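Take a protein:
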Amino acid sequence: MEAKTYFISADMEGVTDVTAWCETEKGEDGYGEAQIQMSREVAAACEAVLEAGCQVGVRDGHGSARNILHGLLPRGARLMRGWACHPGSMAAGISEKYAGALYVGYHAPAGSDGSPLAHTMDKNEIQWVRINGKLASEFTLNSMYAAQMGVPSIFISGDEAVCRLAKEEIPQIGTVAVKECRGNSTFNIHPEEALERIRAGVAAALEREVPVREVPSELVLEVSLLRHQTLRAALAHPGIQQVGESVVRYTARSPRELNVVLGYVIG
């Protein structure tokens, strides 16, 4: 029997101890420490998958998409680096062959107070994203895209807010919150404890039956933009309408279409 393969989408803002934007940007103060901890948290998830006799592919989904130090991952972990110019974005590379999707280092969405680093896709362009009237996180977008491929989303780690929101969207999903956030502060568990909890959380998630999330046949995307120039450019796309002073709306028929249009909106 062929071993199951799992997909990991990794971000940085939800990693333990990461608190300020400079820590998430190459060459800035604190980035090196955040890069190492991101790599270690992904490694912990990979270890649990490999120890279960399965295979694992990792998608670096933060910034340049060249953050994870492959040498810190266990042997056997396949790593996708760089942007694929693909509508899957942070979930690019996922396909029907994967038995499940896992998310490491994820964070609260734009428009929420769940993290000092709360954002959705582009912090410089987007104030908030809503899908069918509900605030949407990057987890929302990526788990819907995975669902279009028939892949269930079974585990997420990151800040407490995104873990709570993920549970609301997929009640059976396994979660590990590595920090809680108040204002511009984060209250973090110890980095080693984060690794232990992620390893155990992934192991438990692999044993559960998690259904593929349901995706509505109609996805009404609303985006509040921070710059009038971006809004003006977005209106050139067929089907995008302005419905507020800074808000555009588009009705998509699939997560793939939604991602394509959102990518167009933010340029």
About this structure: The chain has a mean pLDDT of 97. The two ends are 44 Å apart (CA to CA). The first helix runs from residue 31 to 51.
